Amino acid sequence: MILGYPVITADEYAHVESLENVSGCRQGTPGYAYFSLDRHVNERTCPAFLWHTVTDDCVPAENSLKLMAALQKAKVPYEAHLFPSGGHGLSVCTQETGSPDPYNARWMELCLAWLGRTFGYTPVKRGGKFMSSWWLIVGIVAGLLLLCLNHYASNTFQRIQIKLPKKK
Question: How far apart are CA 83 and CA 94, in angstroms?
């Protein structure tokens, strides 16, 4: 899984609004606490790449640190990068995404290298440089997210009942 400035924990470092939206529960309830993802890491959790900025004013970097600690304890492979500055929502740190930051933009090259070491992924090159097309990035992230969600859902969410509306 590839996570940038993730909301992980439901404790004092939580991004309350995000957790309430995802869980459908109010802060302090068991349903809300259930979504503290660092508590669900085990040896079957997929490898992870994390990046965060230390000065994120929305989601504290402790969220990534807590996930790193849980991954380490479960002996799950991961790579993590904490950049010294930058706000929340930097995306790929380019002009196109409205957050140009060449220093933090290195997370993409680091992530592509991690994908290669971990999964044997070889990025497409153009003119000797890695292709940084928005669609390539979206495809990689979406594909890995679906793989990890499928794994996570089959191992974790089978314990909770989800009622979906019937199709008409």
Answer: 16
| DSSP sequence for 117-151 | HHH-----EETTEE---HHHHHHHHHHHHHHHHHH
Tokens (6 digits) for 90: 């930097």
Q: Extract the tokens encoding 86.
A: 């930058």
111 contacts 2 by C-beta, under 8 angstroms: yes
Backbone angles phi, psi at 140, to 5 degrees: -65, -50
Lookup result for tokens 């992924």: 121
**Over its length of 168 residues, how does the chain's per-residue pLDDT go in tens digits?**
999 999 999 999 999 999 999 999 999 999 999 999 999 999 999 999 999 999 999 999 999 999 999 999 999 999 999 999 999 999 999 998 899 999 999 999 999 999 999 998 887 666 655 555 544 555 555 555 555 555 445 444 444 444 445 555
CB 68 within 8 A of CB 50: yes
CA distances from 72 to 41, 69, 86, 95, 102 (A): 10, 5, 26, 35, 29
> Do residues 21 and 52 make contact, with C-beta atoms less than 8 angstroms apart?
no
User: 13 with 75: CB under 8 angstroms?
Assistant: no
